[in-house]
Every structure is written in structure tokens, then in C-alpha cells.
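Fig. S4 source data, part A: sequence.
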Amino acid sequence: MASSLFLLLDDLATMLDDVAAMTKVAASKTAGVLGDDLALNAEQVAGVVAERELPVVWAVAKGSLVNKAILVPGALAISALVPWAITPLLMIGGAFLCFEGVEKLAHKFLPDHGKKSGHETEKPNASVHAVAANPKVDMVAFEKEKIKGAIRTDFILSAEIIVISLGTVAAAPLLQQVSVLIAIAIVMTIGVYGLVAGIVKLDDAGYALRRRSNAFSRSLGQGLLAFAPFLMKALSNLGMLAMFLVGGGIVAHGIPTIAEFAHGFETKGALIATLAPLTLNLIVGFATGAVIYGIVTLAKKLRRKKA
């Protein structure tokens, strides 16, 4: 009996060791998506009033966990039953990200975009001051819209993280696959939204440090207050760029001709092998988003004429 128990514990320890090793590999492969996820979600939750920032981040984090609770069993089921469907589903998600990127550009550079689309609310990227100063804006609805948008974007990025992780453990037993995917889902969610919470509260930390008597603390606080707006603006722009890079990368990898063309840069030297695929993803992402945006805009116009 004792020997059987020790054998069981040994097998369990071996399995946990394998799970830890595979989780580490999966985490390294999804690190790039983690950076995009961070930029996108920090940009998505920006613009709410200061006292509501952490509740909004917490709401999005809970939504992200729900997303992953749906995606993990869904990915395992699709991988087992219809593995050919993974790529088309990812491409749909990637195309939607590209569309959202172009829509954000339209909000930013086309002043009449909101009016033409029939939206009376403030632009998604508007500052909290502009939103608060507009009496027509419902702040509760604005906050809910922010949360919905962030959770929707998280779903696509989480799907990519889960699918990439699944690819690293495809040959492993089912129990190890499940363990690795759950570990990745939890670690990525805590990592992303922990960092997002820290980023959006940088200004509060600056104010707290500036009130201290220590000269160094006051200087550090002043520096954080000066740095925070630049960081949020940079994250906003990086988030928009990430939509095209991630979405375009998914679409490009799903089209064999483009994927083969991208692989051709791998033998052209380290710099070209790094920059050329990123540029290609950016072009594919913007082109995909522009086409979908044009179709959606045309469909809205036709629907209004019929109405």
C-alpha cells in the first residue's frame, strides 16, 4: 500500500514538473501577445473618472476570466473534434481587431464620424475631462461601454493566447493540456490586469508622493505626474497599433500565400527577419480593417436609406 502511494506521488510530481515546464514554454511564446494585451486594455480602460479606475479594471479582469473559462474548454473541444476550424475562427477574430483599429482611426481623424454613425456619445478615446464637460454624456453608460469594449477586445486576444498555448501542448495527455491552459489563463490575467491597474493609478501615486515632506519623494511624485499622461497617450497609440499588428498577423498566417511570403524573410538577416513580418502584418491589418470598415459603413448607409 505504501509503495503504491509513493509511486502515485512520484507520478504526480513528474506530471506537475511537466506541466510547469510546458507552462513556461507556452508563456514565452505568448509573451508578445501579453504586451499587445497590456497596451490594448490600458488604452481601453483609460478615460473613466479616477475613483472608478480600479473598479473598471476589476470588472474587465473578471470578464477576462469568464472569457478564458469559455475559451479553454472550447479550444480543447475544437482541437479534438474539428481542429480545422481553429484557424478560420482566429481569422474572424483577427479581422474584427483590424476593423476596430480602423474604427478608432476614423473616430480620431474624421470629425463627423460619430454623427454619421448615429452615435451621440463621446468618442471612445476622448479624455475624461471632455466627457465630464459634455452634459449629453451618460457617465454610467460611458463606463459600461468602456468595460464592454475592453472585454470584447480581451476575448480575441485571450483566444490567441489559448490557441498558441494549446499548440505547445498538442502532443501531451489531456490532463496536462487542461492544466497548462488553466495555468496560462490565470497567470496571464493576473499579469495583464495587475499591470493595467498599476498604470492607471500612476497619477494617484504621484499625488501621494508629492504630499510627502521628503524632497526626493516630492520630486519623484512630480515626475510620475508629468510622465503619466505621456504613458497613457503612448499606450493609446500602441494599443491601436497592436490591433493592426495582432489582427493582421492572425489574418496573414491564415492565408498561405502571405504566410509563405513572410517566411521568406527568415533568411534575410536578423533585422529584416524581425521588421519585415511586422510591417507586413501592419499592412495586412490596416487593409483588412479598411475593407471591413468600408463594407460596414456602406451597409449602414443603405440601411438608413431604406429606413
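Fig. S4 source data, part B ends here. The chain has one domain: 27-306.
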